[in-house]
Design brief:
This protein is α/β, with parallel strands linked by helices. The chain has eleven helices and nine strands.
Length: about 325
C-alpha cells in the first residue's frame, strides 16, 4: 500500500477568516495523523484572498507543534520569492524543533502580477534562476560546500528536499539533481505523462535519492453518496482565487458547454463520489501512473464535510498507519 498524504490549500471560505482557516488546518492535521496519513503539506500563495497560506514556514511550525508523528512540510516554498539562505535557516530551525518530521518541497511558482512581484522584492529573471537557487540551497544543507556562508541552523539538517512541478521542466530538474519529484496533477494534468516519463527516464541517482521517487497530487472529494460528493465538488469547480464559495447544485450545467468542458478537462484527475467510487478512481489512478506516493487535495466548503472526505479516503485506501520504506530518500 503506497503512502497517502494531504496537501492543504488553507482555504478561506466565503464569510470566513484566515484565523478560522488555520484552526481548521490544525484540526484536520491532527485527525490526519490518527487516520494514518503520511505527510501533511502546506502551500505558499501571496495576494490571494482565498488562501491563508502565505507564511508557510510559520504555519508548518504551528501544525508540527500540534501533532506528534505525521510529517509536515511545504508543498511548497516558491524559491524565487526567497533567498536560499533564509529558506535553509528556516527549515533547519524547523528540523531542529521537530526532528525527522519536516519536508521541504520547492517550486518555481507561477507568474504573479507586477505589483505582487514588487512587493515580494522579486528581481527580473528570478524564476529563470530557480535551478541555481535550488543547488545553492542544497549546498547550505549539505556540508562540505564551496559557499563562504553557512546556514546555522540548517547545515547538515535532516530535511528531505523535493522538487515540485507542473511541467516537464520541473521533472527534468528533479531528475538531474537526483531528488524526489511531486507533480501537481490536481491542477495541471496536460503534461503529466510527459513529465513522469522525463523524470523516470533521465533520473541521475544521488546521495539524497538512489532511485526515482514520484508523488502525484489528486483531487479527492468523498462523501456518503456520489450525488453528495458531486455537490461538494462544485465549490472547487467554482474556485478562482477568491474566498472558497459554497456548493451550487448543477453548477456545470449552468455554464456554457465550452466553459464546462474546460473545467472538466482541468479536473480530469479527480476522485469524486461515494466510498466505492473514490476507491475505484484512486486505484485506477495508481495503476495507470504507478506513483510511489499520492497526496490528496480537497477544496470543500464545509469543514465537517472536508474532514469526512479525508476520513473516507483513509478508509478506502486503508493505509492502517503504515509508513513507507523510503530509505532511498536520504537528506544527507
Amino acid at each position: 500500500m503506497i503512502p497517502l498524504s494531504i496537501l492543504d490549500l488553507t482555504p478561506i471560505r466565503q464569510g470566513g477568516t484566515a484565523a478560522a482557516a488555520f484552526h481548521e488546518t490544525v484540526d484536520l492535521a491532527q485527525r490526519a495523523e490518527k487516520w494514518g496519513y503520511h505527510r501533511y503539506w502546506l502551500v505558499e500563495h501571496h495576494n490571494t484572498p482565498g488562501v491563508a497560506g502565505a507564511a508557510t514556514s510559520v504555519l508548518i511550525a504551528h501544525v508540527a507543534a500540534a501533532t506528534r508523528t505525521i510529517r509536515v512540510g511545504a508543498g511548497g516554498i516558491m524559491l524565487p520569492n526567497h533567498a536560499p539562505l533564509k529558506v535553509a535557516e528556516q527549515f533547519g530551525t524547523l528540523a531542529a524543533l521537530h526532528p525527522g518530521r519536516i519536508d521541504l518541497g520547492l517550486g518555481r511558482g507561477i507568474h504573479s502580477d507586477p505589483a505582487t512581484l514588487r512587493a515580494l522584492r522579486r528581481l527580473p529573471g528570478a524564476m529563470d534562476a530557480f535551478p541555481q537557487d535550488v543547488q545553492e540551497l542544497l549546498d547550505y544543507f549539505h556540508p562540505p560546500h564551496p559557499l563562504p556562508v553557512h546556514a546555522i541552523p540548517g547545515e547538515g539538517a535532516d530535511v528531505p528536499v523535493w522538487i515540485l512541478g507542473s511541467s516537464v521542466s520541473g521533472a527534468n530538474l528533479a531528475a538531474s539533481l537526483g531528488l524526489p519529484f511531486a507533480f501537481a496533477a490536481h491542477f495541471a494534468p496536460d503534461q503529466l505523462d510527459m513529465a513522469i516519463a522525463a523524470y523516470r527516464g533521465r533520473f541521475v541517482p544521488s546521495d539524497r535519492c538512489a532511485a526515482p521517487h514520484l508523488m502525484l497530487s489528486l483531487t479527492v472529494v468523498a462523501a456518503a453518496t456520489d450525488a453528495e460528493a458531486e455537490l461538494l465538488f462544485s465549490s472547487a469547480l467554482q474556485a478562482s482565487g477568491g474566498p472558497l464559495p459554497p456548493p451550487v447544485p448543477g453548477y456545470l450545467d449552468s455554464l456554457s458547454p465550452q466553459r464546462a468542458q474546460i473545467i472538466r478537462n482541468a479536473f480530469r484527475h479527480a476522485a469524486v463520489g461515494g466510498p466505492e467510487t473514490v476507491a475505484r478512481h484512486l486505484a485506477d489512478f495508481i495503476a495507470r501512473y504507478g506513483p510511489d506516493e499520492v497526496i490528496a487535495v480537497g477544496q470543500i466548503f464545509d469543514p465537517a464535510a472536508r474532514r469526512k472526505s479525508f476520513e473516507i479516503l483513509s478508509r478506502v485506501h486503508s493505509p492502517a498507519h503504515e509508513r513507507p520504506a523510503i530509505a532511498e530518500i536520504n537528506p544527507k
